[in-house]
Amino acid sequence: MAARFHNPVDVRFGLGVSASLAELVGDRSCVVLTFAEAGYLGLLNTTVESLGGCLLGVLDQVPANPDVQDLETIWQAFIHLDQPPQVVVALGGGSVIDTAKAICTASSAQSFHQMMNHLTQGLAVEERLTCELVAVPTTAGTGSEVTPWATIWDKAAQKKYSLQGPALWPVRALVDPRLSQGCPASVTLSSGLDSLSHALEALWNRHHNPVSDAMAVEAAKTILRVLPVLMTDLGNLGLRTEMARAALLAGLAFSNTKTALAHAISYDLTLRLGLSHGLACSFCLPAVLERALGLEASRDNCLAAIFGDPLEQAATRLRAFLNQLGVETSFVAYGYDSAAEAALLDQAIMSPRGQNFLGPLGSLARSGR
């Protein structure tokens, strides 16, 4: 079967690569988009100093899981800068990078309302942006630095939107493991579980290919081995480096497959319960894994490379891994009785992300899960 893998992002990975930011920006005008705690964590001062007179400003109020109202506030600040920047530097996790993708459309879209039409109608951003996006992730998890999508939440309407299109690939990604050293335990865990979800969702996916498979398997194996140890030694730069590499590989893998059923299930938990994305999309991974077994020999081979033999015990091993990290893996733990669980699963399976799952449609319900 013919396969294709494509990713246009110029990725630089390694300790200290973020120091090349000023060289990459050159003498072009730029703005830094980041989160409020970036200064406190020591991430901002060095960046600001290195950019010098090219820096038009810092927009540092991106919250976790940005809402459309948050986005409009940041959008207004962006368009009222003294001049349109030539470069947007997104310094932060997935929320920051996703927000940066959205505000970069301000260079081409006529209004915030037009961008919202793209969100609500699922329209792709086709036009070339006039500002360059440089993603500098400070967490090991999101993968947004190497994908052409952005997630925006509408909490009032209880909806999750995806901004998408070929214009939204970052031009460059600087993945420097040092920048994740200050991540607190909760962010480290959630982002690590998000990466694991990306890796596994790329495998049981209708759009899988040999290149994404290789990256996903390596990422999942690394995360299963490293994340529990890292949670007991958050300052360990070697472990941080391994997790940053695994997150990057997982991001590259799902940049070509998109996510699948576990992510489709997760959105309701984030909107309804405020559960972090990493926890929301990882708690059901064992249940989805059970469903994925036996669907395709090549998928079983990939999963066996991660979980070992006998493969029938893979879901049990994955549950034990998640439980060890304090993650409950049953729907009832999150307030879903059997009827609510069935309704959520039916809705998830029929969603665009659910349709990426390799298996047949139908209920996920299993006795003894």
Can you describe what's shown?
The chain has helices at residues 21-25, 44-51, 68-79, 94-104, 112-121, 185-203, 210-230, 237-257, 261-273, 277-282, 285-292, 297-307, 314-324, 338-349, and strands at residues 10-13, 30-33, 55-59, 87-92, 132-137, 149-154, 159-164, 172-175. Helix 7 packs antiparallel against helix 8, helix 7 (210-230) runs parallel beside helix 12 (297-307) and helix 11 (285-292) packs antiparallel against helix 13 (314-324). The protein is α/β, with parallel strands linked by helices. It folds into 2 domains: 10-178, Rossmann fold; 183-356, Dehydroquinate synthase-like - alpha domain (Dehydroquinate synthase-like, alpha domain).
